[in-house]
C-alpha cells in the first residue's frame, strides 16, 4: 500500500492485491456477516450499511479487473 496524496477531501492510495483483498474481506464481513445490526451500524462505523456496501461493490469490481489483468500478464493471483 502506498499513500499517494492527501487533501481535505480525498485520500489517493495505491493498493496491491493483498491490501485490496484485506479491505474487501473486512468490508464483506462487516456488511454481510450479521455481526452489527442496522440500528448500530452507523454508530460503530460512521457510515450507514448502504454506503459501506457501495464501497464494497467498488472495491470488489476493481479486484476482479486487477485479477483479470494479472492473469492475462501471466502473474499469479
Task: Please render the helix and strand layout as text.
Blueprint: E1 2-6, E2 11-14, H1 17-32, H2 38-45, H3 49-72
Helix pairs in contact: 1-3
Give a written overview of the molecule.
With 77 residues, the chain is mainly alpha-helical. The protein has one domain. The protein contains three helices and two strands. It has helices at 17-32, 38-45, 49-72, and strands spanning 2-6, 11-14. It has a two-stranded antiparallel ribbon. A hairpin with a 4-residue loop joins strand 1 (2-6) and strand 2 (11-14). Helix 1 packs antiparallel against helix 3.
Instruction: List how many beta strands DSSP finds.
Output: 2
N→C terminal distance: 17 Å
Q: Give the count of helical stretches.
A: 3
The radius of gyration is 15 Å
The ordered string of helix (H) and strand (E) elements is EEHHH
Quick take:
The protein is mainly α and 77 residues long. It is built from 3 helices and 2 strands; from the N terminus they run ββααα.
Amino acid at each position: 500500500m502506498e499513500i499517494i496524496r492527501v487533501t481535505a477531501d480525498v485520500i489517493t492510495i495505491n493498493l496491491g492485491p493483498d491490501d485490496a483483498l484485506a479491505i474487501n474481506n473486512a468490508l464483506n464481513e462487516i456488511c454481510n456477516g450479521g455481526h452489527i445490526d442496522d440500528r448500530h451500524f452507523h454508530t460503530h462505523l460512521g457510515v450507514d450499511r448502504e454506503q459501506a456496501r457501495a464501497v464494497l461493490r467498488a472495491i470488489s469490481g476493481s479486484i476482479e479487473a486487477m485479477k483479470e489483468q494479472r492473469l492475462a500478464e501471466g502473474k499469479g493471483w
